[in-house]
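quick one, 184 residues, struct below
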Amino acid sequence: MCLYTIAKHPEVQQKLYEEINKFHEHQKSNADPYDAFHALKYMDVVIDETLRLFPAAIFIERVPTEDYELKGTGITIKKDHVVHIPAYAIHRDPEHFSDPEVFRPERFLEENIAHNPYTYLPFGAGPRNCLGMRLAQLKIKLALVNLIHRYVFHTTEKPLELGSYYAPGGLIKPKSVDLRISRR
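---
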């Protein structure tokens, strides 16, 4: 979905391309590649914004190991009851993100972050967040660095078709993502 969002926003794609060129220049000085990947700050916010709009899971499931009372509500969640946290809906709630339907990576820049960290949940949150989060983020960055450095992505006339199916975690799977790709 990240390639689709940058194809729809050529100015974002260009900014990423410029950051990737700086990354490659930095690599020529034999710098530590792991540190260099962490310096791709604009790429981080593009990935974050893409995952906000298109999280892999519609909801997150949790099962409490003991009864838990939600403070100030009088509501008790019973031990072993499945709780669904609607990540997709939270990510698109205007109370948490202004203009939630708009792709705006800058909302995740350090100086602009205004949301509660527990309202951004593509990998869950807290001590039981996704174990593979760091690996997934690194693999996404590696793929984007290689693809954007070599190719330009364009949308086609065919609209994006999102479909969903239920699987553990309520996964979202696009039915169709059509892009035109050209060499740089």
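The domain at 2-183 is CATH 1.10.630.10 (Cytochrome p450).
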